[in-house]
Amino acid sequence: MFLINPYIFSGANTYYLDGYGTPVVWYELVKRFSAYSGACIRVRRSTDNAEQDIYFVDDLLDTASLLSFVGAGNGFVTTFYTQVGTKNVTNATATQQPQIVSSGALITRNGFVSIKYDGSNDNLFNWSSGFINTTNVSFFSVAQRDIIGGGGTIHNQASSTNITIRSFIDRGINNYSFAYSSDILKNLPQKDDANLRLFSNYVTSSKFMSTFQNSIAGDTLTSLIGGLSNDGLQLGQQFGTGYLNGSINCFGAYNTDNSANRVAIETILNNYYTIY
Questions:
Q1: Overall pTM > 0.85
Q2: Which end of the chain is more exposed for a tag (fewer CB within 10 A), N or C?
Q3: Distance CA 110, CA 212 (A)
Q4: Domain map of the chain by residue range?
Q5: Residue-by-residue DSSP string for 69-110
Q6: Helix, strand, coil % over all residues of the chain, rounded to 5
Q7: Which residues pair with 216 in a beta bridge?
Q8: Strand 124-126 relative to strand 233-235, pairing
Q9: Residue 171 carries which DSSP code?
Q10: Alpha-carbon Rg of the chain, whole angstroms?
Q11: Burial 203-237 (b: 16+ CB within 10 A, else e)
Q12: 206-220 confidence digits (pLDDT tens)
């Protein structure tokens, strides 16, 4: 007797996002693009601080190799490899690396292996250049927050200011989800729970902003703000504050208005995470 992966059959793989545009970056513990053959993450183990790349097996993170490498200690993500392009996010400071293994066991949220940010100083970044647009741009993310009330940062694009694009997960009454400098969009009603959520955020070339949470439309706004800083990408923190106490399971960005493919991409992501 053998088990069939329900996502891989008849020559088709419904994990993949091929055919729905080409992102500039995509980070996830699930392989989403058929052409990618590299590692998923690089992990540091606490016992001796050795590091090792962890790859995909059957398009999912190779958790057997991960646990074998980490052993009975803790495992921390030093690099999250992008599945498209070359802009990996990293952090060489051990005390700021998010965690994926705790005392020899996988960290999970809603039953899925997750990368846990501690809400204090954990983050991954790439400040090499402003490689993600500030207009004509689309974002997809799957994240959750462990702490009751309030919010945490999923991504931001400036190293020394908040006059930039940022995305959030919020369990407070504001339920903020997407910001273009001081212009901030909300998704209502409030969701004060620790479950995974799926976000889709857009800024068109004319700076029309829109946000969706679990495929439900939130606020829209045409921003009049100009001159945004754009240094690269940081996951889990905005400048000076806003650290995430929770997990970022997926983050991807397209340097296009990819809203025409929103429902298709959300459906593929939700088919795996079963968020709604």
A1: yes
A2: N
A3: 21
A4: 22-273
A5: HHTTS-EEEEEE--SSSS--EE---GGG--EEEETTEE-EET
A6: 10, 40, 50
A7: 213
A8: antiparallel
A9: -
A10: 18
A11: beeebebbbbbbbeebbebebeeeebbbbbbbbbb
A12: 999 999 999 999 999
Place of tokens 């993500």: 77
**pLDDT at position 8 over 50:** no
pLDDT at 85 over 80: yes
Which tokens go with 67? 């646990």
DSSP H or E run through 226: none
Residue position matching structure tokens 């459906």: 267
Contact indicator for 251, 235 with CB cutoff of 8 Å: yes
Residue listed under structure tokens 């945490």 = 152
Predicted confidence band at 2 (pLDDT cuts at 50, 70, 90)?
very low
Distance CA 275, CA 254 (A): 22
User: What is 22-273's CATH number?
Assistant: 2.60.120.200
Mapping DSSP to helix (H, G, I), strand (E, B) and coil, where does residue 25 land?
A: strand
Distance, in Å, from the CA atom of 205 to the CA atom of 102, rounded to the nearest integer, reads 43
Residue given tokens 């006059």 in the structure block? 163
Distance CA 106, CA 275 (A): 20
Q: Give the confidence band of 9 by pLDDT, cuts at 50, 70, 90.
A: very low
Judge contact between 109 and 174, C-beta under 8 A: no
Distance CA 237, CA 233 (A): 10
